[in-house]
Amino acid sequence: MSEPLLQVRGLAKHFRLKPRKLFEKPPVLKAVNGIDFDVEKGRTLGLVGESGCGKSTAARLVLRLIEPTSGEVTLDGVDIVRSSRTALRALRREMQLVFQDPMSSLNPRMPVGVSIAESLRFHRVGTRAERHAEARHYLEVVGLSPDYFDRLPHEFSGGQAQRIGIARALVLHPKLLILDEPVSALDVSIRAQILNLLIELQAEYGLTYVFISHDLSVVKRVCDVTAVLYLGKIVEIAESAHLYREPLHPYTQALIQAIPVAQPGAKSVSEMGALQGDVPSPIKPPLGCPFHTRCPHAMERCRQEQPPLQSVGSGRKVACFLHDGA
Known about the structure:
alpha/beta; eight-stranded mixed beta sheet; 31% helix; globular
């Protein structure tokens, strides 16, 4: 096992909201509520879960785009949370974000080549000619012509725009890429191309990924390790092959059952028992296990106590009393 590039311990973000009534205590939204994970160099960790479970907030906390309420984030031995603003600016060269919607992340009035080179200008890397040459190189790396340098974003398809977003992230030679739903806004026919590109770039440049998605079929393809989030907490984390073959947490089981199966005669999701109900509000999460309101195996203990995330062997951890002491 290689040394972790990224280490996250007890990471939490609580947003204090405005009270609805005068003199009322401000409600607190617990978007991320104490998560731990490691990402080894050259590998991919997937963060999965339904909308509102805290995946994107966790990504922004890792990059310190928002300040955590508590916890530690370490990148290659450097403490991100306690770094000064000056040190953080230098650290940001080591970690980059690829956005969900490629079009909205590009300046519509700026040529795409200039957008790619802008990161280098911000970090005062090279001359203008050198920055532009580097931008043309990375356009070619992601499968686009260097001649596209002067074109505006509206001239590109969604898939091409995402390639430009990836090039913009790569131009600083980062160690870590946070991929926030990088293919969810793309046509199904284009998704495979972008996923193949990400796999090839990781192999060529030794990149480390944190891949955020609600689509488990995508995560299964690209991620070495998968962490399942529910109401801001990790409920299961394991090697992807093990997790998909034998999910332990009832929430993980329900998510995997919901993956479409392209086989004639295969059981529908409803026949297998789809996940019922909605995710509870993170402002007023349920007492005990956060999943007990939707769990078909809920016991009285689940309503009273919150199960810890504990090891169940083979590098796997699960927060469920069904596997207590396994």
